[in-house]
């Protein structure tokens, strides 16, 4: 005898809805096992890092210019 729909606990009904029918079609989230995807992700992270470094170049140029002026002024005092 099948239990009536009202006798099924609500939690088990929710678990049924949340459970993937086929784990291959609905894989768990996580790092990709595909080597190409891993390489692409690594390159994207490296590119983002390089872009941040490039953004800092004008600041570094300004700092170097200021340091050069200070050194020149100190040399003139000696």
What's the topology here?
Layout: H1 10-18, H2 35-77
Features:
single chain, 78 residues, mainly alpha, 2 helices, rod-shaped
Write a structural description.
Helices cover 67% and strands 0% of the residues. With 78 residues, it is mostly helical. It starts with 9 loop residues before the first helix and ends with a helix. Keywords: Coiled coil.
Overall form: rod-shaped
The radius of gyration computed from the alpha-carbon positions, rounded to a whole number of angstroms, is: 31 Å
Mean pLDDT comes to 78
Task: State the major sheet.
Answer: none
Q: Separation of termini?
A: 103 Å
Which percent band covers the strand fraction?
under 5%
Measured as a percent range, the helix fraction is 55-70%
Looking at the chains present, what oligomeric state does this protein adopt?
A: single chain
Task: Report the uncertain regions.
Answer: none
Order of helices and strands: HH
Number of contiguous helices: 2
Please state the structural category: mainly alpha
Count of β-strands: 0
Coiled coil: 33-77
Keywords: Coiled coil
Summarize the structure.
With 78 residues, this protein is mainly α. It contains two helices and no strands.
């Amino acid at each position: 005898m099948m239990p009536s729909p009202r006798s099924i606990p609500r939690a088990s009904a929710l678990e049924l809805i949340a459970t993937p029918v086929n784990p291959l079609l609905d894989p768990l989230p996580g790092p990709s096992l595909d080597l190409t995807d891993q390489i692409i992700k690594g390159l994207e992270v490296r590119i983002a890092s390089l872009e941040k470094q490039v953004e800092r170049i004008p600041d570094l140029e300004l700092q170097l210019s200021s340091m050069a002026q200070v050194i020149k002024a100190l040399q003139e005092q000696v």
